[in-house]
Amino acid sequence: MERDWVDDSEWSNYYDVMWIRGLAKLLVRQIGYALVPMIARGVMLGADQPVILHMLDIPPAAEALNGVKMELVDAAFPLLKGVVATTDAVEACTGVNVAVMVGGFPRKEGMERKDVMSKNVSIYKSQASALEKHAAPNCKLLFRLFFYLTVELIDYLADNRSPKSVLVVANPANTNALILKEFAPSIPEKNITCLTRLDHNRALGQVSERLSVQVSDVKNVIIWGNHSSTQYPDVNHATVKTPAGDKPVRELVADDAWLNGEFITTVQQRGAAIIKARKLSSALSAASSACDHIRDWVLGTQEGTFVSMGVYSDGSYNVPAGLIYSFPVTCKNGEWSIVQGLPIDEFSRKKLDLTAEELSEEKALAYSCLN
């Protein structure tokens, strides 16, 4: 592999990040173009973490991809120690520590869900095979369909922090993560996640606006379930920092009808609302939330704070094991843990079960496409 800017002697000390812009070119270019400068500036992995960025795209986009590489060089980011721009999955995946998978096939007019699922099963099967054979041990993955990125970090593995991560961003993100695991069995289940942090951040923003408080003072909202319109944004355990101490969101809002109705639907449908307003998808916030997800996963969550991540269900909260399901988690030393023991009321139970049912149906559909 050609490694621009970095001598081979230095390569083992860097963290490898790869992103795949994939087939949904307009959306992916938006998210990818927003994301790469954030990574290069240290937003994703810390202000002291040098990175080598791998970028993968389809052959027709090779020239545009090279243009992005030129801009990265021109920006002279101090933390960016190398760039690999390629249309070869093997070259892009070799040695990577963090993979953000954003590329996928979008649903088009007249297509059934199974048609879209079949297309993405094929895409994720090939990418999983490349990661399985060529990524660094313990690679971490984050999924939210429409983007794929890998990063190599310098002096990171030596600290025994989280060496290999995969994030799926492409939709249906939860099920795409499941498919990737099917074809990359050597990657630990705990290293494959999907992005629900965007929905989590949207919920924080809605509470912040409703109460006219700083969003940084709101914490512990939860997104349960699928990254879809069945997701359940839950504020029953959320608090707001006040001069008198942390107060429950539900107590401060004092409007159960809004919290159980408009608040939930606003978060669920926020992406569609942004597309209607911008005529483009929510690229900036998606890129920012991907950085939030990886940063907390790798560097850890703050004490007393939990965040939402789509992770492998172990049966917690009576969610069927084996689904990629969004739970409240805390992160430490590069590992996530599901927050246990939160009380679930009847209203919430129905919401958790509904989104689990949808994920089970998606899983069955995806597996039928494997045959």
TrEMBL record:
CDD domains referenced in this protein's UniProt entry, alphabetically: MDH_cytoplasmic_cytosolic
Binding positions (substrate): 107, 113, 171, 202
Key words, A-Z: NAD, Oxidoreductase, Tricarboxylic acid cycle
Binding site for NAD(+): 57, 120, 169-171
GO molecular function, one term: L-malate dehydrogenase (NAD+) activity
PROSITE patterns listed in its UniProt record: MDH
Reactions that this protein is recorded to catalyse: (S)-malate + NAD(+) = oxaloacetate + NADH + H(+)
Active site: 227
Residue span, Lactate/malate dehydrogenase N-terminal domain: 30-142
UniProt domain Lactate/malate dehydrogenase C-terminal: residue ranges: 196-364
EC number: 1.1.1.37
Superkingdom field: Eukaryota
One annotated GO biological process: tricarboxylic acid cycle
Family: Belongs to the LDH/MDH superfamily. MDH type 2 family.
UniProt protein name: Malate dehydrogenase
